[in-house]
Design brief:
There is one protein chain. By secondary structure, the chain is α/β, with parallel strands linked by helices. It folds into two domains: about 160 residues, Rossmann fold; about 80 residues, DNA polymerase, domain 1. The chain is about 40% helix and about 10% strand. A seven-stranded mixed sheet has the order 3-2-1-4-5-6-7, with helices on both faces. α6 links the parallel β2 and β3.
Amino acid sequence: MAKIKAFFFDQDGVIIDTEKDGHRVAFNETFKEFGLNAEWSVEEYHGLLQVGGGKERMRHYHHTKGFGIEINPEEEDEFIRKLHKYKTDTFIKLLESNKLPPRPGIRRIMREINKMGLVMAVTTTSNQRAAQAVATKILPEINFDFILAGDAVKVKKPNPEIYLTALEKTGLQPEECLVIEDSKNGVAAAHAAGIRIVATTNFYTEREDLSLADIIVTCLGDPDGEKGKLKSGGEGLKYDGVLTARQLVDYFSS
């Protein structure tokens, strides 16, 4: 089996737990600012997360439930664009407030990957500005080889395009890479690209079917902080609540 040479990290729910207290809050502030009749609850937003991409999520909501106003079909794209731009600005302000810290184990394992000299990238359906804000504001000391965000691909997860694009950029084979994901759509996208997967669950995705992942844990874990729990996979892995980059490279390379 080929040796793991690259790690691809999803962003929302993997690097930072943004969905419930980040993106959802920013969407609701946007709706209020534009005078729309919409406020996404925690439970409703879980269903909307099955639609990949923020613009696509709002478009889906517009076509299924509506925002309480008439929108000319010819003006729909521009309307969604304006909403999404305001929402992104609001979300980035939340990120820059440092109220959304990295999930347990993220900073640790990324430092390990950097020290090992492996390729590391962010592969997210989130907006490019938001992805850059996470990399530069939340994790300024981490070296990412590249960041692929939602605008870089035509089709969002569960379509594998973003991971196929990542493979093309690295010139690596699927078996030489490892994806860290958290959602059913993300896991399906990585699986379709033929890449091995570690899934870390969160408030929303702990209820999703992540069975296509090779290993499922509650978080990556920190030695002196929150430890993870192994939920599935990882047969033969010596697991103590902390997954290290070396462990994962050895496990998937053997």
